[in-house]
Structures are given as structure tokens and as C-alpha cells.
Amino acid sequence: MAERRTVRAHVRLSPVELAAWRAKAAAVGVPLSDLLRQAMARTRPWTPAAAAVERERTRQVARVGNNLNQLARWANTHPSEAEAVEVVAQLVSVERALLALARLGGEDTDAH
Predict the structure, then answer these.
(1) What single DSSP character describes residue 81?
(2) In angstroms, rounded to a whole number, what is the distance separating the alpha carbons of residues 52 and 4?
(3) I need a surface site. Which of 26, 30, 42, 60 has the fewest CB within 10 A?
């Protein structure tokens, strides 16, 4: 038997926000309270430690992207000198760096 819901939570919204929330609930065919419970059940709170990890991960992704841009620029500037094997090796290096960043964030990287 499901636990009875007897406690109410209050939140202040603008009329526009409330209308948007109601429209979302209507679009999926559930009462607003069900939609809010489902949304909150899927929400992860950000702790200061998690925010710091995410900031570092974002910095690392930017660095990898910068390296990838430099590699692409070099390959476009020197097409006759670009050895396919060298370019592929660099791309594999970029892939490994991105996989390492995904592991830092706790994501599953087994699904290639």
C-alpha cells in the first residue's frame, strides 16, 4: 500500500511560470503534482565538491577541444605533409583524453 501524501510543499512562482508548469503537465497527461514529484526524483543536488569537479572537467574538455582545433588547422594548412597515420594517432589521443574525462565525471564509458 502506498504511503498517503498528507504534507504540502509551497513554492512561489510568477503567473507565467505556473502556466508553463501546468502546460508541461498537461502535455504529458499528468497532474502538476505528479510532474513535480517525478522531476524532483530525477534531480541530483550539486554539492560544492561536485561543482568543483564539473568546473575542472569543463576546463579539461576545453583544452582537448583546443588541441583538436590545432590538429585540424595544421592538417588543413599542410595537407601534403599530413601523414594519415599521424593524424589518426592524434585523434586516438583525443579520444582517450575524452574517455578519461568521462570517467572523472563517473559516466559509463563501456558503450562504444
Answers:
(1) T
(2) 39
(3) 42
